[in-house]
Please model this.
Amino acid sequence: MTSLPSIAAYIESCCTSSAFKSEPSNLYEPLRYFMSLGGKRIRPALTVMAAEMFDIPKEESIHAALAIEFFHNFSLIHDDIMDEAPLRRGKSTVHEKWNTSVAILSGDALFIESYQSLIHYPDDRLPILLKRFNETAVEVCEGQQMDMDFENRTNVTVEQYLHMIRLKTSVLLGCALEFGAILGRQNEETCSLLYNLGVSLGLAFQIQDDILDLYADPLKFGKQVGGDVLANKKTMLLIEALSTNDNRVAELIAMSATEQKVEVAKKLFTDLGCLEIVKQKKEYFHKQADDAIETLEKSGKNTSELKKLAEFLLMRDV
Model:
């Protein structure tokens, strides 16, 4: 199996050399800008790795991988607008660098580019790929809406939160891995195994992201540390804190959005044991992902690079 650095470099070159048109410049220049910001290219790497397990070369799987990556970046552009986020990957977001109208339209164009990438495949694969892609795209939108709805609710449960992040984040990782199995013409059981592996990775990844949003080193994180706390977003940390019925949690929510609020949240979530509970939940889904990889290994598949990527995702500090 091709090494992770080689796959990442290949995907990066394909992303940055994508033939976006030049005019109108306010539609396409934001796309070139946003795609040039980099990122870990995790989702397309999963597609390429999964396809290689079934002897599909990266030159064939790259179109499906780019469909996943373009869709992911489209969702980020729009998420940044909804969250009023000033930074993405340490740089100005599209709506900050241009304006909201430009960001919406450029995001829409990138969404269409994701479908353009899929039409490279033959008729026997294309309907299956499109069906899974459409199902996933709708679920991501559902998850985003649930995330916004939760901001105005005080009674969000851990189970509801996990369902939301499964839709908003995890299903796209599941789709990325399943695309590799679909391209490899695998049976339904194998496709489901790859999909569930991606979902487990995504759940663990998002829970880890909740932790990092508050506890990461701001010099490494690339975006505003404590942004979720400042916006009173219902992360797993806050939900666990609310379940303690400690008066200090209500006081935290009522605080103005300052650096002091971030520091108070860090100490409070640690003192209440919420940080440790959330870490344990992350490890639960990490174990599910490891079990799925082990099943693939037992079937004779080379999972060495997939293992490395999973560990990179779940042991990261940025």
The longest helix spans residues 188-215.
